[in-house]
Amino acid sequence: MQNSYPFKLKVHHVGIFVSDMDRSIKWYDEMLGYKLMFRKFFDLPNQGLVEMAWIKHGDHYIELYNYQDQKKPFTLPDYFGSLGTKHLCLYVDDKDLAPLTEYLESKNVEFWVKHHWPEDAVGKPGGCRVIYIKDPDGILIEIQQSYTPGEY
After folding, report:
1. DSSP-assigned letter for residue 107
2. CATH superfamily of 11-69
3. Which of 28, 32, 70, 108 minimizes the number of CB atoms within 10 Å of its CB?
4. Where does 2-144 have alpha helices with state H?
5. d(CA 16, CA 14)
6. Does domain 86-147 have CATH number 2.70.70.10?
């Protein structure tokens, strides 16, 4: 039995802390096609002064944060050893993952994972291919073929 809710939630953006705002804006534009929509310094409650930029692709945003008192770099032990949001996942049509992978390879983007989940693991006919790339600060970005768990 499914609950009925008086609202419909939609994803608006994900926030990513970066060490160099200009470098990150350029990387997300050149590698993934995100366009700068807004950039400004804010004095945020309980956080202090931070530069924020909103970049957009399609109908969603990434909100980039750059704190002036540099934060520590992201590491894989941080990823595996802490709670909280771990990565951004994007998807492409099945036919587009190979050309995207080739494009990112030609740009010397660092890959963390290239994997093909077999059909018996995910239920999708033919399985599902997935890549994880790293942005300039080592933040993991998953890009997968179109996949909807539990709907096959």
Report:
1. T
2. 2,3-Dihydroxybiphenyl 1,2-Dioxygenase, domain 1 (3.10.180.10)
3. 108
4. 21-32, 76-81, 97-106, 119-122
5. 7
6. no
